[in-house]
Specification:
Bound molecules: 6-O-phosphono-beta-D-fructofuranose
Helix content: 40-55%
Strand order of the largest sheet: 2-3-1-4-5-6
Shape: elongated
Radius of gyration: 24 Å
Number of strands: 12
Largest sheet: 6 strands, mixed
Number of helices: 14
Strand content: 15-25%
CATH architecture of the largest domain: 3-Layer(aba) Sandwich
Order of helices and strands: EHEHHEHEHHEEHEHHEHEHHHEHEE
Structural class: alpha/beta
Distance between the termini: 53 Å
Length: about 400
């Protein structure tokens, strides 16, 4: 029987570019095909090898000779462990480290010369996402002794040191460059036979949603009067539903909850967050704000029809493409809603569970991102206020289930 092929994957990229998320996604999915994958993370070796704190930015200063030597030794240990894994039962060894300098990559190619190496370079140039990712990193235990501002400063300084020595992985034989926010391959050059590459490429480009709970806020003051727009809060009944939602999810770890910036979705999240202090991170995104109804803001549908019958008729004729004067339409809000989804998926990384609390039109657009619906049907998708969609979209499982809470 032919011996199974072996492969090293070396991640490349500045800190907080999504490298570890990509590595974990490759591992979890390749293992479903009985490919044995090991992740070898320099940070883990560092925490094991170096007693005390290595969160100080100075540790990453290339001109700090003492720590530079230590970091070389850490890399060498990681390389040796990856090599041992492939010499034994492993098929794919992923070296999860920055590997941003040509010199470091030369060391990798020199040491890992018994099997092909694929370099996966992760890029995310979005300043907002970077700021949010850095904020997430500063919550790691290694920054526990610093306040948020000091931890952020230290981490940004660390990124600065890496930026200084960064050289795009253009000199290597096999490289795929990935935009990690959009799961898009920006460039690739594969010279020699890279085992499993077809599968890897496919995984790099696919979204991976383990369990997304898509919730709409419960009854708001405006809902009672059938009014559009505004920023009203939940009614008494709505607040009770918010508690029901929180009770329904007791026992489900929810590390990330995303809402819009509007009062009704924030109030819907409140009981959940209150009962999970320190366990759930909440991000309020304007990308998830309800459709902007422009000059119709605050009107009821009846008032809209009475005051502007032509506008009302035009909307009924082509609801998807209709745009409220001074506001948005379904078609024109698509871009920002999809961006919100990408942001949420990026930030929640490999979390098993996540929740988005949105609005009627926004949730329709989010669903349309996952479901192939004719555009003209999207504005009519039923979005109840006492049920949520449970969405799973992986390579092996697709689930869309409407559940009561
Ligand atoms: O009525 C609640 C609401 O969220 C409004 O704020 C929004 O304009 C509307 O739903 C969107 O749904 P439709 O496009 O069906 O009017």
């Amino acid at each position: 029987m032919a011996r199974p092929a072996k492969l090293y994957i070396a991640m490349v990229g500045l800190p907080a570019m999504g490298k570890s998320t990509v590595a974990a996604k490759l591992k979890e999915n390749l293992e479903k095909d009985d490919i044995k994958v090991g992740i070898f993370n320099n940070g883990d070796v560092r925490r094991r090898m170096v007693p005390g704190n290595t969160s100080e930015a100075g540790f990453y200063d290339p001109d700090n000779a003492a720590s530079a030597g230590l970091r070389e030794r850490i890399a060498a240990v990681n390389i040796a462990e990856a090599k041992a894994f492939l010499s034994a039962e492993g098929h794919v060894a992923i070296l999860d480290a920055t590997n941003v300098s040509c010199k470091r990559r030369e060391t990798l190619r020199h040491s890992l010369n018994n099997h092909p190496i694929l370099f996966v370079e992760c890029i995310n140039d979005d300043p907002e996402l970077l700021a949010l990712s850095v904020a997430r990193k500063t919550r790691l235990p290694e920054f526990a002794h610093l306040d948020t501002a000091a931890a952020t400063k230290s981490f940004l300084k660390r990124i600065g040191y890496y930026r200084h020595i960064y050289a795009p992985a253009d000199e290597v034989e096999n490289v795929v460059r990935l935009d990690t926010l959009n799961n898009r391959i920006i460039a690739e050059r594969i010279h020699s036979g890279v085992p499993y590459y077809g599968r890897i490429r496919d995984l790099l480009m696919s979204d991976w949603i383990k369990n997304l709970f898509l919730v709409r806020h419960a009854e708001s003051e405006y809902n009672l009067e059938n009014r559009v727009g505004g920023d009203s809060g939940l009614t008494e009944k709505g607040r009770k539903m918010a508690w029901a939602l929180s009770r329904h999810f007791i026992g489900t770890p929810l590390p990330y909850v995303f809402t819009s910036n509007l009062t009704r979705t924030r109030e819907m999240a409140e009981p959940l967050l209150e009962t999970r202090k320190g366990l759930t991170i909440h991000h309020a995104f304007k990308e998830f704000d309800e459709i902007d109804v422009g000059t119709c803001d605050g009107l009821s549908y009846a008032e809209m029809e009475q005051a502007q019958p032509e506008l009302f008729a035009a909307r009924a004729r082509n609801k998807y493409n209709f745009v409220y004067p001074g506001g948005e339409g379904y078609a024109t809000m698509a871009g920002r809603v999809y961006r919100g989804v990408k942001k949420a998926l990026y930030l929640s990384g490999n979390s098993e569970y996540m929740m988005i609390i949105g609005h009627q039109a926004v949730n329709r657009m989010i669903l349309s991102d996952f479901l192939f619906r004719r555009a003209e049907d999207v504005p009519y998708i039923f979005i109840p206020q006492d049920k949520y969609f449970h969405i799973v979209s992986t390579q092996t499982k697709k689930l869309f289930e409407l559940r009561k809470f």
